[in-house]
Amino acid sequence: MPDTADTPAGPAGPAVELLVHGVGGTTPQEMLDDPCPVRITGDGTAAVYRRSDDVDAETRPGGHRDAPVPEAYVWSNLTSGNSSRALWLLLLPFMVVNLAHWMRPSARGHRRTVRLYGLLVRLCGLTLTVLFVAAACEVALDLVAWQCAGTRACTARHSWLGFLSPAEGGWWSTPGRRLVLAALVPSALTALLWYLSHRTWNAYESQQPPSADAGRHEDTGGGALARPGFWYGRRLVARLRAAHTAAGLLTVAAALVVPAAHADRRPGGPVVLDVLGWLLQAALAVAAGVVVGAVCRRGRSEKRLDRRIDRHLVRQLPLASVVLLVLAAVYAGWSRPGWRSAGRLQADVVFAALTLLQGLLVVVLAVVAHLLYRTHRPASRTAGDATTAAPAPAVALRGLGGPVVAMLACALGGVMTGGVAQRVSDWLDGTGHFLPGPPVLLTWQASVIPPLLLVLLVLGGRLAGRTLRRARAERAAVAREHPGEAPDAQRTRQIARVRALATLTDDAPLVAGAVAAVTLLLGVAAVVGALLTDRTPARAAADAPALVAGAAETVQALGSWLTGLGFLAFVTSGRRAYKHASARRTIGILWDVGTFWPRAAHPFAPPCYAERVVPDLTWRVTTWTRATGGRLVLSGHSQGSVLVAAAAWQLPPSVRRRVALLTYGSPLTRLYGRWFPAHFGQEALASLHRDIVCWRNLYRPTDPIGGPVRLPEEGGPAVDRAPLKDPLVYDRTARHPLPEPILGHGDYQADPAFAEERRQLLDRLAAEVPAPRHGTGQPAEPDGSRPPGTVQRLDAGPQGSAGRSSG
């Protein structure tokens, strides 16, 4: 519940506190402590609410001099709204690789290296698209249409495939036509990914910033987040969507052409079809080169609001791929007497090439990231600054956070695709073992999961031991913070344990780095083993000693089951999220963290909600301050603090003078500064501190997410307040006869320090901003003129959209 302690409006006009919630979302009723809040602007997806008594607060300034008017911006429906969000689980690897794009180290004067970094991440994203479509081709074309439908025992077990059986002699019974029919599945998957990307762009990311000068870039030192085009990446998303759609369709076309061309090269085969096969393969190679070229073109344009779209490329590339797919279907479906399906389709080489390519890209990406990290020299602090702020936390993994996350994205894609192939193969085959099954490489990749879990178990044990030691060390600190109070051993241990657990967030780089390194090594071993032996691990170790052979068989069986269970977990989670709102909210928390960034590396990633939220906030702040001349506190909790900081970067300088930042439970430095140093590093946050009139940050030692910003003092109070007490009262007192809870990451407004800091921010704003002109409600500019774009009537007034109900 927002506190309403005394906050005089003063001569600078009315005051508003714009509350922005964090991950998981909440309701306007909870944020405003009002059972019937009114939506004053926005829609059912994201909107600004006020208490019913505060709708016309600006027209009654005398009645609101004792407190700022609270507003609540609710954006949770962007990530955890309707049931279609369950489909976003399929896009998890795409989201993770998109994060890798934004994790590059800071760099100044190394534009080519920065572009190379972005190019490598985009190529990683392209391999993931090809991997997903290739896995769909493996299931539909190889396992179902080629192996099962071509085997009498399998079609007898699955009668719904009877019309494809060669024994029936039907029109669809030939291998080529069976493959053409099965190609509808990966083609539909590609079309679904295209549709989701296109629809979510229109719904989420098509908002434009309010600045009339958005076409020009004013370098204020704030980095990329201050650029006009940062939150409007329409051109790149459209181009990448066309390229990835074409890549998926070309993958399906290749899955049709290659087996048919192989059959045409048999002795005595038709010469005309053989020539057509070579021509189609050459055309597919050329088209694939064009796709790679489209991905390799220059990335985002952030210095200006780029409204252009490469229409010739966006339209012609997918259309040409569709034409090639149709030609491939006609070619593969042509009658070839004597062509029989036997064994597996030649997918082993494809998956091996993809795995090796992904590993190579990650290694090169690591080299580039290391060069950027080594060559960057942050601005030096003065001796006085060094004594006023704690040292900034180190960049995660010494700048290798992006390559590590890209490796995890590739591994996650391999687990998902391998799990699908393994489960479908087991379902089709049953216990008969009459099918060759999926490619050998997928079995090898599944077999590396048990060793990886063993590494995780060892890491978990190490972190558990470290946490216990930290908890013991914190007991003395808790006792020192409560002198003169009767010691309570159980209460002290409870507080110390929560503080120690809160520090586990800082160990995330260790876990991610270890998992990525082990995954890379085991992945290389799996590829080498599959290529050298062309047999599964159990069969390759059949001639080894009994102990080795038994271990190989156990690891293979366990890995197969774990891969299948992982796939089933995804399906179950998606089904549950489709039916239950609570499950959708849980999944929404994951998207809140992972989809803050625009889609710069993969167009099929879940949509970026910040491309809707940041323009919403900047529009609201700009129009309100210019219309009223009042003061506004952007109050953000958790992920909301990141959003208000991003919005503050986008505000015009004339508006920033009337805006203060109040962040609490903020991951700006603890998470974003460590993992995204190029955009939330100390230099970028210091520039925001200079541009904003005043900024205050609150945090608790028990908070596992929020932490200090660690910026030096620059002519005013430091950004960080001393750590808040948690719990507020150590033991039972006359005023608190019941034990106070440990709040951790939530309910910062319950601390009296919150209202105190907000009052001080508004007092500082009152001293900084000019008073409004009498009789107009408009602020006086330095030259005495009226600010451009101001209006007499509030956009949220009762004559506007204030009367709409929140529903």
UniProtKB/TrEMBL annotation:
SUPFAM superfamilies assigned to the protein according to its UniProt record, in alphabetical order: alpha/beta-Hydrolases
UniProt keyword list: Membrane, Transmembrane, Transmembrane helix
Membrane spanning stretches: 86-104, 116-136, 179-196, 242-263, 275-296, 317-334, 349-373, 400-421, 441-465, 510-532, 544-571
InterPro entries membership: AB_hydrolase_fold (IPR029058)
Record has Transmembrane helix as a keyword: yes
Stored Gene3D superfamilies: alpha/beta hydrolase (3.40.50.1820)
Name of the protein: Integral membrane protein
Biased composition (Basic and acidic residues): 755-766
Annotated signal peptide: none
Region (Disordered) location: 753-807
